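Quick start: read one record
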Amino acid sequence: MEIKFEYTRKRSDFGRPCNFSDLPAEVTVDIPPDPSLAEDFIPQDPVDFALQHAPVMALHEVNTERVQATSRGMNHVEGGWPKHIDPKNTDLTSRYREEVERDEMYTRTIQHLGTLMEHCIRQNNAIDIYEEYFADDEEEEGVEDPPSAKTISAFRDPNKVRRTATHLSWHPDSGKELAVAYCSLEFQDKRRDIPCDSYIWDMEYPYKPFLTLMLSSPVLTVEYNPKDWHHLLGGCYNGQIVYWDTRKGGLPMESTPLELSHRDPVYGAIWLPSRTGTECFSASTDGQVLWWDIRKLSQPSERLILDITREDQLQNALGAISLDFSLSMPTKFLVGTEQGSIINCNRDAKTPPEKIANVFNGHIGAVYAVARSPFNPKVFLSVGDWTARIWSEENLDSSSIMETKCHVPYLLDGCWSPVKPSVFFTVKSDGTLDVWDFLFHQKEPSLSIKMSNDPLLSLRPQENGRIIGCGTRQGTINILEISSGLCTLRKNEKSLTSTMFEREARREKVLQDKQRELQVRAQLLAKAKKEEPEDPQQVFKQARRDFFSVIKAEQQRRGETVSLMSESQEEQEAA
């Protein structure tokens, strides 16, 4: 059986044609042998002879002079103006432009340059020697490596008293620096020598912190400013908000006043994408979300109470233990609470009760992590109790559209992969890191690694998705590198992931509608039974028959042959 594949494409799609021609073989020189010269040679068979036309040179070395390279910066604003023209004066510059454009020499020069540019553009568009004509049609060959990971570095708390690494933040530019928040989460810890410092580590020097962040109260969360990389935001254990300028050392630049700050530890602090790059907001277990501007930290610019009853009462507020904000939806943010609820908030609402848009309930314990998908903004991930769940904002009243199996250890943190839409990470209390790819496995993780004997409480990947940092309860930061298959975007992966999310959302909506229909039907049947009148005589006779049938069945079981004729006759007479 022959298998053929014909590929057809227009001749105009191949660029300029190349002309080739076939030439017949021709003899250039023919030297006949001379028999008289054969006596001067000794015949050898076989003959092996090498011929090199280029001259043979000995090996030698040349030392060239070292070039001294220097880096110089230049700030070029605007130039080329005559001395009598001030570039800052718009009237003078516009008048000078009009005079130059009216000159005949200027017109001829522009026409000449335009002709040369047009020739070069046409020459480049004629044929592209680097074009691959069949790149889209050929299937990608090669087998992906199986999911794997390896530890490349580890950072340990330099203090004698070990503290928990509560939060990680990678430097937004190069990713070579990692800011780590250290704090003891034991409320009744009686040790008085617990340090309050946190650190910034350099990937190339894992033995000593790159910068020490000095504080009077430990921080639970740190976050780099994506717009100004030198600013670092921190949320303290005593409820204050501080920020550092790494160019000026480890001392905080300013902190919020204690009386106007949070009343409980700050578990979430995130920068906002403002024009100035100085706005941020924070959430705490006291049930408040506060907005700040680092140019004026004397008081919060805005306040939101997480009261799902929409009465705006602080005593009814739910404690926030996780916070998420995505640039794809700049007006919305997610709050994970201690009570297992996830609150979807809208900052643009007019009144505080309207700012609490939706509430999602599904976890039994606290929601330790909540993260919106970077590829599908209406889908978000939550991690709490023993499961990780995926939700859709389109299904407001239904449960999660996807969820992992119920693990034995607690799940303490989780996040999405920044490069693959179907991959997310979770860490557990037994020191295990799980990598999930639900396009391949939905019941089991694609990769599960035992990182430490201590619980893993914090997790953060780099922007390339290949390097992952995990923080333990003892303050050790393990830097992990995963295989390329888990951090490389495959063909059509975005569309497949979106299709799966839409299918699961529709399925959940259909199941919810069916459940509502059954509930309504049950309520109607119960209401109809109540409306039907019951005859007392019929109820009495039915109870009598049921009673004697139970007695007869019991007598037959025991093997007794007592006759019940009298009872049956009485029953017939009564009927």
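The mean pLDDT is 84.
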